[in-house]
UniProtKB/TrEMBL annotation:
InterPro entries: DUF5714. It comes from Paraclostridium benzoelyticum. It comes from the Bacteria. This is SAM-dependent methyltransferase. GO terms for biological process: methylation.
Length: 233
């Protein structure tokens, strides 16, 4: 979580897992007090995203995305981001509207749809999966389908807005930059068109650049030359 050394203490204590928020007895913790349970540590990316969202009360999808991107199963690039984007947006929306009881079934459907957005979709199909994920989110929240009218239009408008903002950077792709851009766009869209005001991190800084040999560096608004853990200012 913070690149600090992991400590193995002599005495087990109650620890709250950074991802699933459940409490366990453990003697393993980092110098800054972060603890990750065995289940989360060994889970695959999609399971990690689902478990985190089900146990989060946040209404800030950018903050949630940053947390999840620290998970070892979520790589620098990969199709797991196609699920991560609509998952954190949907979770924040339902937390804000006090409809958390809908989240489990919504995430199940969200994951099914996101799996259809293949890796490399951005370059091979001309539609970044993070942007498509915003359309998935809008469709799920509105319970929209191919035969809806206003909802159908909003879903496609949401995707187009996200893709437009993603496209402004040009290539090559960066799953972190594209996800942050898509989520920022969706937060603004949600306020304007769905009348729900989600929290938004105004100065998001990312230093995954050390893991990304194609990083745009200072040409990306999220770039920082700080080589420590990814920070939210």
């Amino acid at each position: 979580m913070c690149n600090e050394e992991v400590l193995y203490e002599n005495e087990s204590k109650e620890r709250v897992c950074y991802f699933c928020k459940k409490t366990y007895e453990s003697a393993i913790v980092c110098k800054n007090g972060h603890y990750v349970c065995d289940s989360c540590h060994s889970s695959d990316a999609l399971t990690a995203i689902t478990n985190y969202c089900l146990n989060s009360d946040s209404i800030n999808p950018l903050e949630m995305a940053v947390d999840l991107m620290k998970h070892p199963a979520i790589k620098m690039h990969g199709p797991e981001h196609h699920y991560l984007v609509p998952a954190v947006l949907s979770t924040a929306f339902l937390n804000k509207t006090n409809e958390k009881e809908k989240l489990k079934s919504l995430l199940d459907e969200c994951q099914k749809r996101a799996k259809n957005v293949l890796g490399g979709f951005c370059g091979f199909y001309g539609a970044c999966g993070a942007g498509v994920g915003c359309g998935i989110y809008t469709s799920l929240i509105q319970e929209s389908g191919p035969m809806n009218k206003e909802e159908w239009g909003l879903c496609n408008l949401m995707t187009s807005k996200a893709l437009e903002n993603i496209s402004k950077y040009g290539g090559p792709r960066c799953c972190k930059r594209d996800s942050f851009t898509a989520i920022e766009t969706a937060i603004d869209f949600t306020k304007e068109h769905l009348n729900v005001d989600l929290d938004k991190t105004l100065d998001l800084k990312c230093n995954f650049n050390s893991l990304n040999k194609e990083c745009l560096n200072s040409k990306c608004k999220f770039y920082t030359d700080n080589e420590l853990a990814l920070e939210l200012n």
